[in-house]
Structures
1.
Amino acid sequence: MAFQCQRDCYVKEFVTSVVSCSPAELKHEVNGKKETLKGFNVKLQDTILFPEGGGQPDDHGLIRDVPVLRVTRQGPEAVHFVSSPLEVGQEVQVKVDWERRFDHMQQHSGQHLITALADTMFGYKTTSWDLGRQRSTIELDIPCVKPAQLQALEEAINERIRAHVPVTVQLLSIDDPAVEKVRSRGLPEDHAGPIRIIDIEGVDANMCCGTHVSNLSHLQVIKLLGTEKGKKNKTNLIFLAGNRVLKYAEKSYSTERSLVSLLKTGPDEHVEAVDKLQKSVKLLQKTNLSLLRDMAVLIAQNFKNNPQRSNFFSLHKKEGDNEFMNIIANEINTEETLVFLTVGEEKGPGLFLLAGPSGPVAETGPQVLDMLQGKGAGKNGRFQGKANSLARRGEVEAFLQRHCKHHTSEEE
């Protein structure tokens, strides 16, 4: 069967009745973490909320005042996941999140148009597509697309949009001979009912279950952002359609104004200004590394030249790296001295190095690692790694000093 959202994609509110409501769970991601929500699967007599399919995400909306968190298709039926139960048999009003729906309509119809013209003009076949949250991608069965071809394709696409070409929906029986002439990547195994054809007049006829605009003029504009290398010798064509182009322009302008303020140059000089800054930063980093190496040698020599030096040396420096610590350890005679070095934020994450006689290092290394909440390993009188927190650095230092005194007394 065709849902109301497929019969008329522009309906924003709809009255129907609840057919069934059963307890269910929904697995989804929140801030990168997988969570399981308890709720209810609701089936309606009919729906204006599109269930995900054909490369198009599902709609969001409300049944009465209850948010619909997911809509999926089970054979000929749409299943709506909600957090609160609904009474079977009651009449309910369904509202669609129109901003999300219209965005999906623009991207999906845009994909049909791009796919059709890429095939007609250059013979490039679409093998798959992805309707992303910010931009969409069409996978073309071709190793690369030339810049001139991309420009010609974009011009042809927007010419069709300006021509107000109608987009209509046809429903055909599966044994209709006309089905054979329609572009398709196949039907799902659980398909039921008539075949739905999206017909862009004079441009394309394609088998599809998704929601679409009724006229190409509703796409407003399409921008082909560029291409990327795809899988298996294919090319990913990245595009924006409709309101996404306007949002992209608004965001780009906002970024441009911020860069003007930061770089103190006009937009045409931004690339050159950033290039100069990067070269300056690289030079400063190189100079800084050279100074750190020299400082490491001086720190070690200063310790070695102290006639009252002990058999334990400890140092923390906010700026530094593994090389800085290893230079100090190499300059100091670690066969006689236990060296504990750290770099990074005083109470935050950082790096550490424990060097000295193999016995004491092997004995104390694991405990140091535990106290710094770190990860690392050691061998041949060196134990080093990353510290998640240097907050207990003072405790580690005291622990190592006690160990040195105990080890010295045992030797005496």
2.
Amino acid sequence: MGDIAQNEASFYSNAEGYWKDVPPTVEGMLGGYGSISSIDINGSKAFLQKFLGEGEGKTGMTCALDCGAGIGRITKRLLLPLFRTVDLVDVTQEFLDKAKNYLGEESKRVGHYFCSGLQDFVPESGRYDVIWIQWVIGHLTDDHLVDFLQRCQKALRPNGLVIIKDNVSYEGVVPDEVDSSVCRDLEIVRSLVRRAGLSIVHEEQQMDFPKEIYQVHTLALR
């Protein structure tokens, strides 16, 4: 990712520009693959429920953070049904404005809407049981991803989890000029997690997605 590190400012500003032109809809959030939303949410719910509950070692259900939340697709269908309070962070203010309507009556259980890129975002220390980071790590440089994961670790409550769910390439780092992002292979993602000082508690591949898109893997970290 050397080239991207050198052109860091444009890497981030180009991505912001891309998302400003994306319609604030589920279809827009999923790049034209709105049809996979239910498969995605059901897979995420099954993954997350392995950890949630009461008792020793279980992850609490008080507060979650949705990173790269967009209009709140994951907040609405995955996080709000499971957690008492959910915070959203996204770089695009228009998406967060739309989220308030999209979430409907349940929006009253949103704690905060933060408009920020994750490279600049500092989550509140000790606030979150789960920090959900889906389809957004490709918008961070390696160094910024490591730094962000370290900040996330500090933001966890006891037995809390950081969850990454994202595309993985078959080999190496594949840049996407259209939305100014990268797709890393799984071993690179794992190495960045280790560099951040977190451990992988569990890992799964999301099944039943269309063949033409990248494999998607979910990693639980703490």
3.
Amino acid sequence: MESLPRALLEEIIKRITRLTDLNSLSLVSKMFYTVESENRYSMCVGCGLYPAKLAMASLCSRFPNLCKVEINYSGWTAENGLQLDNQGLSVLATCCLSLTDLTLSLCSNINDSGLCSLAHYKKLTCLKFNTVPGISSAGLFTVAVGCKSLSALCLIGLEKVANVNWLEYLGSKGSLEELVVVACKGISQYDLLKFGPGWMKLQKFEFDEVKGRYEIEQPHDPSHMAQYQYKYDFCCESLKVLTLARIVTLPEIGLHFFLSKCKSLEKLCLHYVVGIYDSDMITLSHSCSNLRSLSLQLTPLFIGGLQARDCRTPLTDDSLKALALSCPMLETVELTFFACEPMYPSEISFTQNGVLMLIQSCPIRDLILTGANFFNDEGMKALSSAQYLETLELMDCVAITDTGMRFLAHTPRLINLTLRQCHGFSDHAVAEVAHARNLESLIVEGCCRISLKAVQGVAKSVQYKVHGSGLRGVNRD
């Protein structure tokens, strides 16, 4: 292979995705070592980076064209040696001149001072900080001002961030297209509204307060004026992906304004959001005809009745009907119902007929049902005629039996099936479906009536797991 043209060798290397294979290839010859080093564009390091500063300098020297670097200290202990610190990060910033994408995860020795070295990076377009305790608002402001090309910013678990002057700056002077804020206690939904004109450019937004489901506060925005109806009349028509999780909303207050403003939305995730009602989903469906993916994670909320169990999920079939009528491109649907007891069916406000109406009206290719106590064998029979359905995932769906499972054998396009914690059907029904559909993949986790022996070889790729064990792969030749 030494005689291969360099361009061909580079193309071969680009097609190799496994890191172990790339490392082995680099040992074949000096030429292979050189070409592989020059064509390595991404790297993930962490606990094995020791001594951290010298090791980082060595890696940057060996791989001069790195564009994407992740430093992740997951599982780190003192026995792994000192973590990369501000000086080590400065080495990366100085030596890795092509860097455009940087992720720092669980880096305890990096703080605001270290971020100063990143502020000179004019090419840096994507920054992700995951549980980096030393980073505060001051460090983020330094990055916001210095990194002129920054288009994506992801903040997870940054507890020292207490104000959003950096966000105001990015909103007025920056060019962010993606913003993710998860579990940052000092950032509220009202702080995020200070992004101002930045919403015009944003294409992806995710906000998750990561509070407990019952840790609910009455929302209050000190800047909101009740008599001024359009207080939050921002333009966010470029937004394509929206995720709101574990927040409390009220009409015309906070992030609630998104639901009537996002006309280009393609993917929507609403996870345990309090204050979302059918009227919101109807309004959203009328303005989001391009919606392709919908994820709803719901839990029963107290509705103020006299009965002890006067709790139910906030959305009804009216929401599903609006989506069915107004979102003709919807192809991925996830419906998750958490803490809904089968003995109290009224806790879930969706019905089986409502879900089936959505599936029959839209070209649903991927369907995930979790905790759908209302979905039974009749629902599975209706699914068997879903002409677009390719991927189905069922988790904790207690009303489905062998009879319902066998109907899937007639689903015209089904190729991927995932079953988790479903105990109503057995080996025979699942194997019958797998053989009839010639499945590409079958995943079985925690289903007590399905054995490993029964699913071996029934699909091209089989993964099997029982409670307390690891996931086992059983692939068909």
4.
Amino acid sequence: MSTEKRIDITQPLWDQNTFVGRFRHFAFISNPLLTFVPEKQLYEARDLYMKYKAGEEPEGTTMAQVVRAKQLYESAFHPDSGELQNVFGRMSFQMPGGCLATGAMLQWYRSATAVVFWQWVNQSFNALVNYTNRNANAPLTTTQMGVAYVSAMTAAMSTALTFKFVIQKRATNPILARFVPFVAVAAANWVNIPLMRQNEILLGLDVTDESGKVIGKSQVAPIKGISQVVTSRIVMCAPGMLLLPVIMERIEPKPWMQRIKRGHILVQTAIVGMFLTFMVPTACALFPQRCKLSIDTIKRFEKENYEEILKNTSGKPPKYVYFNKGL
């Protein structure tokens, strides 16, 4: 492919300084169809990705093959460790996995038993996603993972049950009960993700200058990154969990819906799936993946880390440091 212009395969194909560019990038790697690509094909894509990166791709390799290899590699392999990710924790599985869990939570919300069970299912799925997309340079112990999982489960279930009983006693509009799952999921995200990534805060994240050279660590950086990830996750599920109750409240009395009562879960799951297909890349694109932090913030809150950065930059630190915020 000597006649074709080469690309930097390690960089996104679209401008990450714009929302549209980030949306196109995440739509590219979170396509639900990528979930069904065989493992053998994923490893073949990784091999071509690595060979192209080293300038050693086989003769006759086309740009289309390179772009496809890039898509498969970035959708399935961890960006830090390079390990093949669990299929259920990949961003490409967010739509199928999320629509099943969300559809069930919105369908079966009337009994306390159903609320507890489906919150457990959803938080188990979320814990897997958070672990799969963790920063591999700050590994968690088994105890830390267990505490994060149990804490998120407790937050989700206690929030859901509290709101459910309060609404049942005081609310006059029955549609309010349908919003309980969203409140519980939002509360649990603020517990689950920070705890699953706690070592990033405790140990600090590597930060780089604009050229990508590691110049030190920061404990404030992961706080900013995790906050953005939590916000994105809540935005990701918000349209489906907030608009679907209104939609179902309107269409459930319809004669055709009354004839397929057992099929309501399928209707809700399909609608949630449509929302998530669009919202997964939208939410991921809200903030740049390569997050930046002012050096003045580190100077103010992290004296030791600031001194280390000063040392590593010969007393001339950059105005901003950069780090990967995670997903």
